[in-house]
Write a structure and sequence with these properties.
This protein has 377 residues and is an alpha/beta fold. It is 41% helix and 16% strand. The protein folds into 2 domains: 10-17 and 260-376, Aspartate Aminotransferase, domain 1; 31-259, Type I PLP-dependent aspartate aminotransferase-like (Major domain) (Aspartate Aminotransferase, domain 2). Strands 2-10-9-8-5-3-4 form a 7-stranded mixed β-sheet, with helices on both faces. α5 runs parallel beside α6 and α12 (306-315) packs across α13 (343-357). The two termini are 35 Å apart.
Length: 377
């Protein structure tokens, strides 16, 4: 069957995600100058709104004009020194990035390797921390390359009473989960604009605890947390900021706070659960053992190539992500970030049609029906 698409594509990838009209309207406005009271007022308001997302009143956070990787690098540069021993949980593409960044900046990195699709066992982390003088544990909360969840709350229980910083890449978790870094024992949190904040790429966030603040150094230049914090608490930045993205972030944070992060998390949990049950009805398997709610990583039915499936879906105007690294061609990934409940009906319909086109024996409407049953229960 030939699919003809006249309306362009819809994006169901785990970053960038679709941008709501309310945020697009802000991004499309004429630029303002950053060394003005107008920008300062907007920036300070954005900071106050961001605190609510983290259930935290601390000013210990900065925004960088970078992708999320910039704040990952800033975490390594600003809170650790050459020779410091750290544990990097390597269970996917982005866990590998923690290890690479640590080595790049002279840290002694112990790679705790986890099978892709599995979650790290906190007891393995505790064993290393007890034996070695570990200055930091670097981990993803949401390993988006595999869809696996790492239990950062359990890891926080291990590190909070020690001289060990828990550094969490929450790039596909912030804006999805009802975050509470103080309560969970997290010391550094990294976020990015193009995920659940529903913005274009180019803005990252870095929050840190009082414990981490005591470890701040002066190793970085552009990514200096000390320099940026001094300016940002006054409503300015050390270097030229991503002005439009900051204004867009203000609108995004307003949306999230209007709904409330408890309700946001419940929505994503419902959406993820419904999507997974629907995909199982279509003969697919959910790849990770303990999946996150921000996306679903899927093994297609036996004999169906994941990338061929994605290509057929794209002909219908539906773009989903493929596997990365060793998972290329084996899985496909559907983002829930920035989506509403009925958006999943659209992508699941495309999955059903694509599977049928590729010769899989599917009962059309079965997956969609299952999804609607789950989210309505």
């Amino acid at each position: 069957m030939k699919f003809y698409n006249f309306k362009g594509e819809r994006v169901f990838t785990p970053g960038p995600v679709e941008i709501p009209d309310r945020i697009r309207e802000v991004l499309g406005r004429q630029i303002i100058h950053h060394r003005t009271k107008e920008f300062t007022d907007a920036f300070l308001e954005t900071r106050e709104l961001f605190k609510k997302i983290l259930n935290n009143s601390s000013d210990n956070f900065v925004f960088f004009a970078s992708s999320g990787t910039g704040s990952m690098e800033a975490s390594v540069q600003n809170f650790f020194s050459p020779g410091d021993k750290v544990v990097a949980v390597v269970g996917g593409k982005f866990g590998e990035r923690w290890a690479e960044l640590g080595k790049k900046w002279g840290l002694e990195v112990i790679e705790l390797r986890v099978e892709w699709g599995k979650s790290v066992d906190p007891e393995r982390v505790e064993e290393i921390v007890k034996k070695e003088n570990i200055k930091g544990v670097l981990v993803q909360m949401s390993e988006s390359s595999t869809g696996a969840y790492h239990d950062v709350k359990a890891l926080g229980e291990i590190t909070k009473e020690r001289d060990t910083l828990l550094v969490v890449d929450a790039i596909t978790a912030l804006g999805v989960y009802n975050f509470n870094p103080d309560e969970w024992g997290i010391d550094v949190v990294v976020g990015g604009s193009q995920k659940a904040f529903m913005l274009p790429p180019g803005l990252s966030m870095l929050w840190f605890s009082e414990k981490a603040k005591e470890r701040l150094n002066d190793r970085a230049y552009y990514f200096s947390v000390k320099s940026e914090l001094k300016k940002q608490v006054e409503g300015q930045t050390a270097f030229t900021p991503a002005i439009s993205l900051i204004l867009g972030l203000r609108e995004s944070l307003k949306i999230l706070n209007e709904v409330g992060m408890e309700n946001v998390e419940k929505k994503y949990e419902r959406m993820a659960r419904g999507t997974r049950e629907a995909l199982k009805e279509l003969g697919c398997k959910i790849f990770p053992e303990n999946p996150v709610i921000s996306l679903t990583a899927v093994l297609p039915p036996q004999g169906i190539d994941a990338d061929r499936l994605r290509k057929v879906m794209l002909e219908m105007g539906v773009r989903v992500a493929g596997g990365q690294g060793k998972l290329k061609g084996k899985i496909f990934r559907i983002s829930h970030m920035g989506m509403d409940l009925l958006d999943m009906v659209h992508v699941l319909s495309a999955v059903e049609l694509a599977l049928k086109e590729l010769g899989s024996k599917v009962e059309l409407g079965k997956g969609v029906g299952t999804y609607l049953e789950v989210i309505s229960s």
